[in-house]
Structure formats: structure tokens, C-alpha cells
């Protein structure tokens, strides 16, 4: 989760796509250049340990856009595929 947040903050679309499950990954991902991610707050986690195949991360990602502050609050599901964690989907809270 933290590495994906960093990729969004840096605008690293290649890494975001690499860590997104192919079944749910969009065909084209365009990031908003005016959105600046400022910090990540992990609210809770479930599973996701070394012996788990699935995990859930609830987070708040804080950003600034057009001189205003905002928060993306999401509960994300991850799956382990070939030893790597991949983002499957999320529900915005």
C-alpha cells in the first residue's frame, strides 16, 4: 500500500499498473497533474501477512488540489499473486 501511494505521489504510472491486478486494472490510467498527494494514514489492516493470500488496507490519502485540501478514504483489497501483492479493488468510504 505504501509503495503504491508513493507511486501515485511521484506520478509513476508504470509502477501503479505493475501492482494492479490485471483483472481490474484500467486500460488507460491518467493521473491528475494538479493533484499533489501530501501524506498517507493507514487506518487498519486485515490479513496481508507472509502466510496470507489476501489482505485489506483501510487508509486515508491526503492531497491538495487547486489550493484546497482533500482526503481519499478507501478500503482496498489486495491479493498475493506469484509472491507479489497486487491491488484488486477498493471501496471509497
TrEMBL record:
A Pfam family annotated for this UniProt entry: YchJ_M-like
SUPFAM superfamilies for this protein: NTF2-like (SSF54427)
Protein name as catalogued: SEC-C motif-containing protein
The species this protein was found in: Actinokineospora diospyrosa
Positions in coiled-coil regions: none
Source organism phylogeny: Bacteria, Bacillati, Actinomycetota, Actinomycetes, Pseudonocardiales
Spans through the membrane: none
Chain ranges of the YchJ-like middle NTF2-like domain: 1-90
Signal peptide residues on this chain, from the entry's feature table: none
InterPro entries according to UniProt: NTF2-like_dom_sf, YchJ-like_M
